[in-house]
Amino acid sequence: MSDNTRSWFIVLCLLSAYTIPSSSDDKNYAKSLLKFKQSLTNPTMLQNWKEPLVDKLCFRNTPIWTGCLCLNGSFIGLRLEGMGLQGKIDIDSLSELPLFSFSLMHNNFSGPFPSDIKKLGKLRSLYLANNSFSGEIPDNAFSGMKFMKKVVLSHNLFRGKIPMSLMEMPRLVDLQVQDNLFVGRLPDFWQENLTVNFSYNNLEGRIPVKLSNQKASSFIGNINLCGKPLDPCKPKNSALKISFIAAAVGGFALAAFIIILLICRRRAKPLQYVKSVDMEKPSYNNKHETYKNNEHGKLYFVKNDNERFELEELLKASAQVLVSGSFGSSYKAALHSGKSYVVRRFRQMNNLGKEEFYEHMRRLGRLSHPNLLPLVAFYYRKEEKLLISHFVANGSLASHLHGNRSPNHPCLDWPTRLRIIKGVARGLAYLFKELPTLTLPHGHLKSSNVLLDGKYEPLIADYALVPVMNKNHAQQFMVAYKSPESTQNDRVTRKTDVWSLGILILELLTGKFPANYLRQGRGPNADLATWVDSVVREEWTGEVFDKDMNLGRHGDQGQMLRLLKIGMCCCEWNEEKRWGLSEAVERIEELDISDDDDYSSYASEGDLYHSSREMSDEEFSFSRA
Ligand SMILES: *[C@@H]1O[C@H](CO)[C@@H](O)[C@H](O)[C@H]1NC(C)=O
Ligand SMILES: *[C@@H]1O[C@H](CO)[C@@H](O)[C@H](O)[C@H]1NC(C)=O
Ligand SMILES: *[C@@H]1O[C@H](CO)[C@@H](O)[C@H](O)[C@H]1NC(C)=O
Ligand SMILES: *[C@@H]1O[C@H](CO)[C@@H](O)[C@H](O)[C@H]1NC(C)=O
Ligand SMILES: *[C@@H]1O[C@H](CO)[C@@H](O)[C@H](O)[C@H]1NC(C)=O
């Protein structure tokens, strides 16, 4: 490009004597451009925009200053693409130019939409795609821009409604807003010959008739859009009413059931469980005594396919304390067979009577999914329960995200993280499907309950324990009860686990530990909310991502951004607006390491990726040996 410019300079020098008509305007334009440049933070590619000012910005169709657009010797626009630009966009300076076309695509701009853009009254095309612009675009942002033909805002982080002032552009032929966070219904676009792309937002409702002739790919990735060219809208009304009534009746029945249960329990055993909440330090040396004396102490195996062992054997095995926490402590026990098990020890698990407890555990034992840590056996005593599962080679996701780096803890690259979150989503979806009667199919989803096997496939642990935990204890320690609906309205719903998934996603992407995540106690947990805010509302740049992910490939960053958005939609405070699990899972499944965007140039990098991926798998297995 610079070669090109240089050769034009030479031509220019040869011809300048007699061909260039002088134009005093251009000098003023140059002055304005220089002013505009000053508001940018790193305009390294605009080196030739400098004093002394040029007399002419254009020679025929060729610009003298980088990035100018020229037609027949006249300056007509700016095309400042892929220059790493960021900073403020000084619209006032630009408004002094005859700007017909203006592009800032593929730069690093962030912050709100430049809302005074309507001062550029001559503008026909505006391209802001592939930056990190964020926030809502005011409804009147484009008011009076009646010449506008192309508006390209794709691949940013714009939120809120599609601005209505787009309706005031009679000549609009191309509108691209894909890959943002726009919400709400589509306005009734009326323009002739309009091509649109609304894909990958959170738009909803019926697609306007006028847009029904567009390609389906212009609307995909909006779970709640319907109508031609997508699937027909469901006649929702009656179904909605019925499900509403059903939910109300179900809710009432459930509430009644809980109340009856509570009353019965109160009567039967007053104050039994209001003892000290503190867990003793697990004293491993004493364990043998404790269980030996308990004659009917027998392990109950929930499946037939596992090797059998006695509690004795488990207790004799060489063991190691893994976690000693308030929620429950765990030990690792290596048996003679060579297999290692994890024994989780719970004291505050008396919400159900013995029969019901067995029933619930058998139910958990029947669950089987590649991304669930299976329950192997359990042990029941009134004062204490033990849950036994296999030991998982690579520890928890939390230890990898927040632990010290070592050969045993290599940092997780992006493809691995994506695989992990996909696995978690699948496991969670399975729990939702298999446990339809539980309000909280998981209830305690967090990074330390996502274990990684030898191949770094995730296994979800500690699921579906809410029904058996003492209420008070659950509310103090379980993640679901840190959700906004629990802290504010004292209730949890089927979307509460989605919120935990969202937190997990943000944690996975940023590598930041949710401050005071595990803080004990009830009441407003302002800290976790602040944490989400700090992640979400920070200036949008690549900065938010964990540097350990190896941020080299830009195609990946597009996918990371998408996942970030998914995380945000899952963390939505208002649970009515929050996504359901199926939406979240669907979106997560759409992500891919080879970017499927319209940037085909990244396809070739995909192959490169695969070979490097295999290498790092080898590294992993090496580090395990
Ligand atoms: C540009 O100049 C050419 C020849 O000088 C002329 O034919 C053409 O109409 C001009 N175009 C515009 C848009 O002014
Ligand atoms: C986005 O812009 C960057 C420059 O900041 C560029 O390198 C990259 O190719 C663009 N990515 C896409 C997906 O267009
Ligand atoms: C739409 O396109 C057709 C065919 O290209 C053209 O005849 C018509 O004038 C266009 N309508 C508008 C409003 O631009
Ligand atoms: C719309 O954008 C999406 C995402 O970038 C792309 O996959 C799709 O092909 C586009 N559709 C059209 C009609 O351009
Ligand atoms: C632009 O942003 C990307 C990632 O967001 C970053 O890697 C790059 O260094 C930035 N470029 C400049 C010039 O700041």
TrEMBL record:
<keyword id="KW-0812">Transmembrane</keyword>
<dbReference type="Pfam" id="PF13855">
    <property type="entry name" value="LRR_8"/>
</dbReference>
<keyword id="KW-0732">Signal</keyword>
<keyword id="KW-0472">Membrane</keyword>
<feature type="signal peptide">
    <location>
        <begin position="1"/>
        <end position="24"/>
    </location>
</feature>
<dbReference type="InterPro" id="IPR001611">
    <property type="entry name" value="Leu-rich_rpt"/>
</dbReference>
<dbReference type="InterPro" id="IPR046959">
    <property type="entry name" value="PRK1-6/SRF4-like"/>
</dbReference>
<keyword id="KW-0433">Leucine-rich repeat</keyword>
<dbReference type="InterPro" id="IPR001245">
    <property type="entry name" value="Ser-Thr/Tyr_kinase_cat_dom"/>
</dbReference>
<keyword id="KW-0677">Repeat</keyword>
<dbReference type="InterPro" id="IPR011009">
    <property type="entry name" value="Kinase-like_dom_sf"/>
</dbReference>
<dbReference type="InterPro" id="IPR032675">
    <property type="entry name" value="LRR_dom_sf"/>
</dbReference>
<dbReference type="InterPro" id="IPR000719">
    <property type="entry name" value="Prot_kinase_dom"/>
</dbReference>
<feature type="domain" description="Protein kinase">
    <location>
        <begin position="316"/>
        <end position="591"/>
    </location>
</feature>
<keyword id="KW-1133">Transmembrane helix</keyword>
<protein>
    <recommendedName>
        <fullName>Protein kinase domain-containing protein</fullName>
    </recommendedName>
</protein>
<dbReference type="Pfam" id="PF07714">
    <property type="entry name" value="PK_Tyr_Ser-Thr"/>
</dbReference>
<feature type="transmembrane region" description="Helical">
    <location>
        <begin position="242"/>
        <end position="264"/>
    </location>
</feature>
